[in-house]
């Protein structure tokens, strides 16, 4: 199974006796963009946090470039995280810092160093996501939801990661702004040549962003396939979910 | 045989008490581990001296007005109380001595500890708790920045450094408050009052005040950081953390004040 950028083998995680991940198996190839779809509470965010080492799984292995994340010590995890960028669902920008320090936080690790160069790097990355230097000194609270998402996107790509995670990238945005974010993600993934993993329950987003889609249900991957097969999966669970029907096998 | 004759209610009561003790010990263990992590991480790079200075400003400089006001009014009220109570057995002359000892050994450190805990522990818990529920702490970790080094250690060390400095200021202002009231209202001679104050005051009184202040600063910051870091459950969770931080900081300050006083004089 060599060659996968990320490989999950029988990953399990329970909280207070409730199994959230119940044997997840998943492989993501280098340069691939994969979307995981599933209901709220199905374990999508937990999967991402397990890969990042923010949550330690109870069992199973998670390999990133062949290295087992679950066996790593904190210092090794910190080093591994240079490979990752992440766009959080609520943007998770640091309220107390201006935009330019937010964007360059992954480079400076929060320290105030080379401010002129950092402002330039911030401006370059903001331009990549369609924003300009006029917002460099603003605080996140002074930006709209869509602009906050873009700034968070700029922050995720600024350290030039090899892998980017997108956690519900279009949640809370109107359909037009959501599509703008989808386009941005597609162009960034193509331009930067990164491996991308998106979790979403926005079908339009999944179809636009991903090469392949996997569905997580009751802690397991129950279907995976190319995005073109999403509405023609032959799986009743996937059909019910993507068509948004109240009736079906998912209760 | 015994268990058969012991009423279920008694067993249930013992079980409840046992459960509480186990929960308390577990909490003490978690707090101790958290404190060790916060101190330990500060000893290895990267260091954040700028964050330490920033927190010294928040905890020390910005607390000066409330600490100063509390100290001057308390010093003056203490002088009036000692004068009134002392007049019952012709001991009015003890006012300068009691004010200075009372302020430096007890009231200065405890009042500063409580005032700053009310102002700062709650703010720390609310800020860090909000960062937790909005995933800012997770974002920080994914950006290869350890929240312990960046957020928590500077707050803990700033608390330990700032509180003794604030207590020195509060003691001076409190003694001055007593002096003002004694001289301008109670008719004490100004130079005699100051002479008695200087004669009574000893270096070990200040040492005790500074030790107490450093301990109070540690607990005040630790409780703010600990409860903020462990926040869960959205806005309601932030509210709970803030309350828990202030209440636990108050209890630890009062308890440690008693233990230090007994250790020194008991």
Automatic annotation (TrEMBL), chain A:
Lineage: superkingdom: Bacteria
MF-aspect GO terms: ATP binding; ATP hydrolysis activity
InterPro entries: AAA+_ATPase, ABC_transporter-like_ATP-bd, ABC_transporter-like_CS, P-loop_NTPase
Domain ABC transporter: 6-243
Entry keyword annotation includes Transport: yes
Keyword Transport: yes
SUPFAM superfamilies, per database record: P-loop containing nucleoside triphosphate hydrolases
Keywords recorded for this protein, A-Z: ATP-binding, Nucleotide-binding, Transport
Protein name: Phospholipid/cholesterol/gamma-HCH transport system ATP-binding protein
TrEMBL record, chain B:
One term of GO molecular function: phospholipid transporter activity
Subcellular location: Cell inner membrane; Membrane
The entry's keywords: Cell inner membrane, Cell membrane, Membrane, Transmembrane, Transmembrane helix, Transport
The organism's place on the tree of life at top rank: Bacteria
Transmembrane segments: 59-83, 95-117, 156-182, 209-229, 245-265
Keyword Transmembrane helix: yes
Claim: Protein biosynthesis is one of the keywords in the record: no
Membrane topology: Multi-pass membrane protein
Cellular component terms per the entry's GO annotation: ATP-binding cassette (ABC) transporter complex
Function: Could be part of an ABC transporter complex.
UniProt similarity note: Belongs to the MlaE permease family.
UniProt-listed PANTHER family: ABC TRANSPORTER PERMEASE PROTEIN-RELATED, PROTEIN TRIGALACTOSYLDIACYLGLYCEROL 1, CHLOROPLASTIC
Protein's recorded name: Phospholipid/cholesterol/gamma-HCH transport system permease protein
Organism: Sphingomonas jatrophae
Taxonomic lineage of the native organism: Bacteria, Pseudomonadati, Pseudomonadota, Alphaproteobacteria, Sphingomonadales
């Amino acid at each position: 199974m060599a060659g996968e950028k990320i490989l999950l083998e029988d990953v399990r995680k329970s909280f207070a006796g409730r199994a959230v991940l119940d044997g997840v198996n998943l492989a993501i190839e280098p340069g691939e963009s994969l979307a995981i779809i599933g209901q709220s509470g199905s374990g999508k965010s937990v999967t991402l946090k397990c890969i990042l080492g923010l949550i330690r799984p109870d069992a199973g292995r998670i390999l990133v470039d062949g290295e087992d994340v679950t066996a790593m010590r904190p210092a090794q995890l910190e080093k591994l995280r240079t490979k990752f960028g992440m766009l959080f669902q609520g943007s998770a920008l640091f309220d107390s810092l201006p935009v330019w320090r937010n964007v360059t936080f992954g480079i400076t690790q929060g320290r105030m160093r080379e401010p002129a160069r950092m402002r330039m790097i911030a401006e370059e990355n903001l331009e990549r996501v369609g924003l300009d230097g006029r917002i460099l000194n603003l605080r996140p609270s002074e930006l709209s939801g869509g602009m906050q998402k873009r700034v968070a996107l700029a922050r995720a790509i600024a350290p030039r990661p090899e892998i980017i995670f997108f956690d519900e990238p279009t949640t809370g945005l109107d359909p037009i702004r959501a599509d703008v974010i989808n386009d941005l993600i597609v162009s960034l993934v193509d331009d930067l040549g990164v491996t991308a993993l998106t979790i979403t329950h926005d079908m339009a987003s999944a179809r636009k962003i991903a090469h392949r889609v996997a569905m997580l249900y009751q802690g397991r991957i129950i279907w995976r396939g190319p995005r073109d097969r999403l509405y023609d999966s032959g799986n009743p669970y996937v059909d019910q979910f993507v068509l948004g029907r109240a009736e079906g096998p998912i209760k | 045989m015994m268990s058969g004759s012991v009423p279920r209610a008694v067993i249930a009561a013992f079980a409840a008490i046992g459960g509480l003790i186990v929960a308390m010990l577990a909490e003490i263990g978690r707090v101790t581990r958290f404190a060790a992590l916060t101190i330990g991480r500060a000893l290895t790079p990267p260091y954040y001296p700028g964050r330490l200075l920033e927190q010294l400003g928040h905890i020390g400089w910005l607390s000066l007005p409330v600490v100063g006001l509390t100290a001057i009014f308390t010093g003056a009220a203490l002088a009036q109380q000692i004068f009134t109570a002392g007049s019952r057995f012709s001991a009015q002359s003890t006012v300068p001595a009691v004010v200075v000892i009372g302020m430096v050994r007890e009231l200065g450190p405890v009042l500063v500890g409580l005032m700053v805990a009310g102002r700062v522990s709650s703010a720390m818990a609310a800020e860090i708790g909000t960062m937790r529920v909005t995933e800012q702490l997770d974002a920080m970790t994914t950006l290869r920045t350890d929240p312990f080094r960046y957020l928590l250690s500077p707050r803990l060390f700033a608390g330990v450094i700032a509180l003794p400095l604030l207590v020195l200021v509060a003691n001076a202002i409190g003694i001055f408050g007593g002096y003002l009231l004694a001289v301008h209202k109670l008719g004490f001679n100004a130079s005699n009052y100051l002479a008695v104050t200087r004669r009574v005051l000893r270096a070990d009184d200040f040492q005790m005040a500074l030790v107490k202040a450093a301990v109070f600063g540690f607990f005040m910051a630790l409780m703010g950081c600990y409860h903020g870091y462990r926040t869960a459950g959205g806005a309601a969770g932030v509210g709970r953390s803030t309350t828990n931080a202030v209440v636990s900081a108050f209890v630890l300050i009062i308890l440690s004040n008693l233990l230090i006083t007994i250790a020194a004089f008991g």
